[in-house]
Specification:
heterotrimer; A mainly alpha (292); B alpha/beta (446); C mainly alpha (364); B: 446 residues; 5-stranded parallel beta sheet; 38% helix; globular; C: mainly alpha; two-stranded antiparallel ribbon
Chain lengths: 292, 446, 364
C-alpha cells in the first residue's frame, strides 16, 4: 500500500513535468511543423543560468525568473536565426538541424559550465510528511511542481483563446497563407511560438532539477519521454500533451518501482511503438492520418 | 563520360581518403617504444631526466565529485618532489586522462596512455568497473599498474595472473569484514540493509559483510552508477524495516541516498564505507539541495565510516601537517581535502617504489620493488600486504564516527586479510612519521 | 597493344558496377596494407576504430540517403552486435574463429533490425527519428537490467583474439612485418569495411537500390509502380542493421569491452554527423565522415589547449564541432561535402531543391 501510494505520487509529480515538456514540443509542432529535439538542452542551459544566479548568492526565485527569461530569448533567437531557413523545406533537414543544435548546446554548456554534477536547490522543502502512519511522499517542492505547471497551462489557455495575440498565433499555425493575407505578421507569430515553448521547456527543466543533480545530460532522457507523451496525446493537441504526460509519468513510475529503473526507457519505447501502431494520431488528435 | 566521371570520383575519393589519413598519421615511423623492451635497451617512459606515469580518473561524470580531486593532490606532491630534485635526478611527469567513470572511455584513454604517451607505469587509475576494462590489457603489455584507486580484490588476489597490478587502499572485502564485525559486536540487534553499487565494489563488500552479519541482513539493494534515481531502492529498504543501512557507494550516491531518505521520512542509522563518506563533499552537495537550510557537514553527523590514512581533520598528525605544507606550496585551486590527501599518499608510495627500483628503474624492477614494500613506513595506518603471493594493499583501518566534519575513532586500527583471516588490532604502522624533508628515503631493493 | 585494345579492356572492366566496385575494393585493400604497415601501433588502433565507424556510417548513409529513413538508433544496433561478439569472447578459452563470430553478430543484429524495421516502416520524418531516439536511449538500460549475463554497468570484457597462423604468414609474406594484436584488428576491420562497401555499392547501383530511391522520393508513385513500399523499407533497414552489427562486433574487439556506456546517444548522433558531413548516400562520404570522427577530436582538442582552454573544455570542442557541422551543413550545403563537390562538378539542368538528398541519379 505504501509503495503504491509513493509510486503514484512520484508518477504524478513527474508526469506534470513531462506534460510541460510535451506541451513545449506541441506548441512548436503546431506552429512550425517541426519536432524540436533541441528542447532538452535548451531547457538544460537555462537551468544552468539559474544555477549561476543562485551560486552568486541571489535567491532561488531570481534564478527562476532568470531561467524563464533566458528561455524566452533563446527560443526566439533560435527560431529566427537557425530554424527560419528550413521552414517549408523537406522535414529531414529540420530534424537534422535540431539534432545539430542538440549537440551544439550540449557542448557549449559543458565548456562554459563544466560537466560536473551540481546540486540544485528546491524551495518549499524536500521532506515528505506522515499522515496516519503512512508516509505521503509529496514534498513541498512536488506540490510546487504540480501547481506551477497547472498555472502555466491555464495561462497558455487564456493566451490562446482570449487574447488577440493568441488568436493570431492560432491562425498562423492553421493556415499561413490566409493569415498573411489577413494582415497577420506570420513570421513574428512563429518566433513568439518558439519563445513561449522555450519558456515552458525551461520551466520543466527547473522542475526536474530541483532537489536533484544537474549535469549537461540530465535532460536528455526527458526529450524522449516528452516526445512519447506528446505522441501519446497527439502532436497536434495541447490537452493531449498534458494528459499524455500524466499517463506516461504514472506508467513509467510504476515500471521503475515494480520492475526496475533500468527498464524505464525501454518501457517508454514500448509505449511509443504501441501508440504508433494502434493509434498513430494520438489519443486526442483531430487530424486524420494520410494513408498510402 | 558520366561513367568515367563516377569511376574517377570513386578512385580519387579512395586515394584521397587514404592519403588524407596517411598524412594524418604523422606518428609515422614506429617509435622505439613499440618494441617490447629487451634487456638493457631504453625503457619506455624513462629518460635521463624524466619518468612518465599515467592515470585515468573520472574528471567528469557521476563519480567526479570528490574523485576528480585525487589527481590534483598527487600532482602537488610530485611538484614538491620535483622541486627538490626529483628521484635519482629524474623529474616525475604525471599525465592524467579523463574517463568519465565510463569503462569504454577508460579503454580508449588507457590505450592512448600506453601506446601514444608511452608511460613507464600506470599509477592510481581509479574505479572498479573502469579499471576492470583495462587490467588484462596492461598486464599483457607488461605495463606496471601500480596502486589502483579502488578496493576491488582483483587487483591483488591473483599475482600470477595479474603480475603487474597492485592495489593500494584496503580492499572492499576486508572493509566489509571489519564493518560487519563492528556491527555484530556493537549493534547486535540491528536489522541491516545493504545499499550497494552494482559491480565488484558492491560484490566484494557484500562478501566481507556477510562473513559476520549474514543472518542480520534483511534487504540488499543495488544501484547502477549513472542512473540517479535511487528512490525505488531506498523505498525498498524502508519497507523492509532496516534500521541500519550499510552503504558501499561513490559520494554522489551518498548524497542521493540521504536526499531520498529525507523525502521518504526514513531515518535509519547510516554506515558508509570510506570511499563515499567525505563529510565536506557530501555536505556541499546536500546543502545546495536544501537552499542552505542544511549546513556544511551537518547532514552526515552521527554517520559511521572507516579511515585508513590521517585526514584533513587530524591537525596534530605529522602526515597531515606535511600534506598541508605541500598543498600550500604547490596546490592549485581550492583547499586541502581528504581526496587530495588520498592522492598525495598514493604519490608518496610511488616515490618509495621508484626509489626502491634503483638508479636505472625497469618495469620488472619496480614490480619486484613493490612486492618487497610490505613494511615501508608511510601515511597508512596499517601495513601493506605486498609480497610475491599477494598484491593487495593496506591491511586495515579504524571505525570512526563523523561529527562536525571531524572523525572520532571508535576502535584502534583493525587489521585482517581476505577470506577467513581473523581481525586483529595492530597500531604499529599508525605510529610512522614522515622524514623531515617530506620525501621518502628508500634504499634500492636488493 | 594498341590503345584501342587497352581502351576496350578497361571499358570491359568498367562496364558493370560489380567489376568497378571490385576493382575499387582491391585498390582500397592495397592502400590499406600500405598505410597500416607504415604507422605506429597507436595509429593502427585509430585506423581500426575508423574501420568500424566506417562500416556503421556506410550502412546508415545507405539507409538515410538512399531510402530516406532517418535512424537515430544505430548506436543501439551496434550494441547488439558488440554484445553478441562479447558474449562469445568473454572469458572463453578457445573462441570460435573470428569470421564465425562476426557472422553471428551480423545475424543477430539482422534479426533485431528486422523487428525494428517492420515497426519503423510505417513511420516517417519526426516519428521515426523520435522512435529510434527512444531506442538509442533504451537499449543500454537492457544491458544493465540483465546484469548477470550481460555484465551490467561494468560490461563484458573482450580479449583480443590472436591472428591465425596462416594470416600472420600471409602478412609477413606480403610486407615483411610481424603482426600484432592491434594490427590484426585493423586488418579485420578494414577487410570487413571493404567487403561491406563493395556489397553496398553493388546494392546501390542495382535494382534494389533504384527501388529504395523510388520509395524515398515519392511513396505514392512507387506504390503505383508496383513496389511494395513497406518491404523495401524493411529491406533497407535490415541491410543497414547488418552493417551496424558487423561494426559493433569489430568495436567490441577494438575497445576490448562491451558496456552500456559505450553506446550512448552520443554514438548515434556521431554516426549521423558523419553521414550528413559526407553527404547522404555517398559511401566515399561515409569514409570521410568516419575519418573525421576518428581523427578530428585529437586535432581539435590540441587546438583548444593551445587556445588556452582547460583539458576538460578542450575535450568538448569535438562535439561542438560536430554539432556546428550538422547545423552549418544543413543551412549552407545540404548535399554534404561530397555531394556539394559532385554537384559543382556536374552541370545542373534542374534547379537545386535544396534538399539534403542527393540529386536524382540519371539512368545508369
Amino acid at each position: 500500500m505504501q509503495q503504491l501510494l509513493t509510486t503514484s505520487l512520484t508518477g504524478l509529480t513527474l508526469g506534470m513535468v513531462y506534460a510541460a515538456f510535451a506541451l513545449a514540443l506541441v506548441l512548436i509542432w503546431r506552429s512550425t511543423r517541426i519536432v524540436n529535439f533541441a528542447q532538452a538542452p535548451m531547457a538544460m542551459i537555462t537551468t544552468y543560468v539559474a544555477l549561476v544566479v543562485v551560486d552568486a548568492g541571489m535567491s532561488y526565485w531570481i534564478g527562476f525568473v532568470a531561467a524563464l527569461l533566458s528561455g524566452l530569448v533563446l527560443g526566439a533567437v533560435i527560431e529566427r536565426v537557425v530554424i527560419r531557413p528550413v521552414e517549408g523545406k523537406p522535414e529531414i533537414n529540420a530534424i537534422i538541424l535540431t539534432l545539430g543544435l542538440f549537440v551544439v548546446i550540449h557542448a557549449v554548456a559543458a565548456i562554459i559550465f563544466g560537466s560536473g554534477f551540481r546540486s540544485f536547490p528546491a524551495p518549499f522543502g524536500l521532506r515528505g510528511f506522515e499522515a496516519g502512519g503512512v508516509t505521503i511522499a509529496l514534498t513541498g517542492f512536488a506540490v510546487f511542481t504540480i501547481c506551477s505547471v497547472v498555472v502555466v497551462m491555464l495561462l497558455l489557455v487564456a493566451l490562446f483563446h482570449h487574447t488577440d495575440v493568441g488568436l493570431k498565433m492560432r491562425a498562423s499555425a492553421f493556415n499561413q497563407e490566409v493569415s498573411r493575407m489577413l494582415g497577420v505578421k506570420v513570421t513574428r507569430m512563429l518566433t513568439l511560438g518558439w519563445a513561449l515553448a522555450a519558456v515552458v521547456g525551461s520551466l520543466s527543466g527547473l522542475l526536474i532539477a530541483g532537489g536533484n543533480l544537474v549535469y549537461p545530460s540530465y535532460m536528455d532522457s526527458v526529450v524522449v519521454y516528452g516526445f512519447v507523451a506528446a505522441v501519446l496525446g497527439g502532436l497536434d493537441s495541447p490537452v493531449g500533451a498534458v494528459v499524455g504526460g500524466l499517463l506516461l509519468g504514472l506508467g513509467l513510475s510504476f515500471v521503475s518501482g515494480y520492475v526496475g529503473s533500468d527498464l524505464v526507457a525501454l518501457a517508454s519505447l514500448a509505449i511509443l511503438i504501441v501508440v504508433l501502431l494502434v493509434r498513430p494520431a494520438g489519443l486526442f488528435s483531430h487530424a486524420t492520418a494520410r494513408t498510402v | 563520360m558520366k561513367r568515367w566521371t563516377k569511376q574517377m570520383t570513386r578512385i580519387a575519393g579512395l586515394i584521397t581518403a587514404g592519403a588524407l589519413v596517411a598524412a594524418c598519421g604523422a606518428g609515422g615511423r614506429p617509435s622505439s617504444g613499440s618494441n617490447s623492451s629487451g634487456g638493457g635497451a631504453a625503457q619506455v617512459g624513462i629518460t635521463k631526466d624524466t619518468v612518465t606515469v599515467g592515470a585515468t580518473f573520472p574528471l567528469t561524470g557521476v563519480a567526479a565529485p570528490g574523485y576528480s580531486e585525487i589527481p590534483t593532490g598527487a600532482q602537488a606532491y610530485f611538484d614538491y618532489v620535483n622541486a627538490n630534485g626529483g628521484v635519482n635526478g629524474r623529474k616525475i611527469k604525471y599525465i592524467v586522462r579523463d574517463d568519465g567513470y565510463d569503462p569504454t572511455t577508460t579503454s580508449e584513454v588507457t590505450n592512448e596512455l600506453v601506446l601514444k604517451d608511452q608511460v613507464f607505469a600506470m599509477l592510481g587509475a581509479l574505479g572498479t568497473p573502469t579499471h576492470t576494462a583495462v587490467v588484462d590489457f596492461l598486464n599483457s603489455e607488461k605495463v606496471p599498474d601500480l596502486f589502483v584507486s579502488s578496493g576491488s580484490i582483483q587487483w591483488g588476489d591473483d599475482p600470477k595472473a595479474k603480475h603487474y597490478t597492485f592495489g593500494w587502499q584496503p580492499d572492499y572485502e576486508i572493509e566489509g569484514k571489519i564493518i560487519g564485525q563492528w556491527v555484530a559486536k556493537n549493534m547486535p540487534d540491528a536489522k541491516v540493509g545493504l545499499f550497494l553499487q552494482d559491480d565488484d565494489l558492491g560484490r566484494d563488500s557484500e562478501k566481507g559483510v556477510r562473513q559476520y552479519l549474514d543472518k542480520k541482513i534483511v534487504k540488499v539493494q543495488r544501484y547502477t552508477a549513472g542512473n540517479t534515481d535511487v528512490a525505488p531502492q531506498i523505498a525498498a529498504l524502508k519497507a523492509s524495516g532496516a534500521d541500519l543501512v550499510l552503504g558501499f557507494n561513490v559520494p554522489s550516491y551518498t548524497a542521493l541516498s540521504q536526499l531520498v531518505a529525507l523525502k521518504l521520512n526514513y531515518k535509519p542509522k547510516w554506515f558508509y564505507s570510506n570511499i563515499g563518506s567525505d563529510a565536506e563533499l557530501v555536505g556541499n552537495l546536500l546543502s545546495k539541495f536544501s537552499e542552505g537550510a542544511v549546513h556544511g557537514t551537518d547532514p552526515l553527523d552521527g554517520v559511521l565510516t572507516t579511515a585508513y590514512i590521517p585526514g584533513v581533520d587530524a591537525t596534530d598528525n605529522a602526515w597531515a601537517k606535511l600534506w598541508q605544507k605541500v598543498w600550500d606550496k604547490h596546490g592549485k585551486d581550492g583547499h586541502l581535502t581528504n581526496y587530495r590527501i588520498y592522492g598525495m599518499s598514493e604519490a608518496y608510495a610511488f616515490v618509495q617504489a621508484l626509489q626502491a627500483a634503483g638508479k636505472n628503474p625497469t618495469r620488472e624492477g619496480i614490480v619486484n620493488a613493490v612486492e618487497k614494500m610490505g613494511n615501508a613506513a608511510g601515511p597508512p595506518l596499517a601495513p601493506f600486504r605486498y609480497s610475491a603471493d599477494s598484491h593487495l594493499g593496506i591491511s586495515g583501518m579504524r571505525v570512526v564516527q563523523l561529527k562536525g566534519g571531524k572523525s572520532n575513532p571508535l576502535t584502534p586500527v583493525l587489521v585482517t586479510d581476505i577470506g577467513a583471516a581473523p581481525i586483529k588490532e595492530d597500531d604499529s604502522a599508525a605510529k610512522d612519521s614522515p622524514p623531515a624533508s617530506g620525501i621518502p628515503e628508500v634504499k634500492p631493493a636488493g | 597493344m594498341s590503345s584501342v585494345a587497352f581502351g576496350s579492356l578497361t571499358g570491359r572492366l568498367r562496364r558493370t558496377p560489380l567489376r568497378r566496385n571490385l576493382i575499387g575494393g582491391l585498390i582500397g585493400l592495397v592502400i590499406v596494407i600500405l598505410v597500416l604497415e607504415s604507422v605506429s601501433p597507436f595509429r593502427q588502433g585509430q585506423f581500426a576504430t575508423m574501420a568500424y565507424l566506417g562500416i556503421a556510417v556506410g550502412g546508415l548513409t545507405v539507409l538515410t540517403g538512399l531510402n530516406g529513413q532517418l535512424s537515430l538508433g544505430h548506436g543501439a544496433l551496434m550494441a547488439v552486435g558488440a554484445y553478441t561478439a562479447a558474449l562469445m569472447l568473454h572469458n572463453v578459452e578457445k573462441p570460435l574463429p573470428l569470421p564465425v563470430i562476426m557472422l553471428l553478430s551480423v545475424l543477430v543484429t539482422v534479426v533485431v533490425g528486422a523487428v525494428v524495421g517492420v515497426a519503423a516502416a510505417r513511420l516517417h520524418g519526426p516519428y521515426i527519428a523520435g522512435a529510434t531516439l527512444a531506442m538509442a536511449v533504451a537499449v543500454p538500460g537492457i544491458a544493465s537490467f540483465f546484469g548477470d549475463t550481460l555484465g551490467g554497468e561494468q560490461g563484458l570484457s573482450v580479449s583480443t583474439p590472436e591472428a591465425p597462423g596462416w594470416f600472420a604468414d600471409a602478412v609477413y609474406f606480403l610486407t615483411a612485418h610481424d603482426i600484432t594484436g592491434t594490427k590484426y584488428l585493423a586488418y579485420i576491420g578494414w577487410i570487413g569495411l571493404i567487403i561491406s562497401f563493395v556489397l553496398l555499392a553493388n546494392l546501390s547501383a542495382s535494382r534494389v537500390g533504384r527501388t529504395w530511391r523510388a520509395v524515398r522520393d515519392d511513396e505514392v508513385a512507387a506504390e503505383l509502380a508496383g513496389i511494395n513500399v513497406g518491404r523495401a523499407r524493411v529491406k533497407a533497414f535490415v541491410v543497414s542493421a547488418a552493417c551496424a552489427g558487423l561494426a559493433g562486433s569489430v568495436m567490441a574487439m577494438v575497445v576490448r569491452i562491451a558496456a552500456p556506456s559505450g553506446f550512448t546517444l552520443t554514438l548515434s548522433l556521431s554516426l549521423l554527423t558523419a553521414v550528413v558531413l559526407g553527404g547522404l548516400g555517398s559511401l566515399v562520404g561515409a569514409l570521410i565522415g568516419a575519418a573525421l570522427l576518428t581523427f578530428l577530436p585529437q586535432t581539435v582538442t590540441g587546438l583548444g589547449q593551445s587556445l588556452g582552454l582547460t583539458d576538460l573544455q578542450s575535450a568538448q570542442l569535438a562535439p561542438l564541432v560536430y554539432g556546428l557541422t550538422l547545423v552549418l551543413v544543413i543551412l549552407l550545403a545540404p548535399a554534404g561535402l561530397v555531394g556539394t563537390i559532385r554537384n559543382a562538378w556536374r552541370r545542373r539542368q534542374s534547379p537545386d531543391t535544396g534538399s539534403i538528398h542527393p540529386q536524382q541519379e540519371a539512368t545508369p
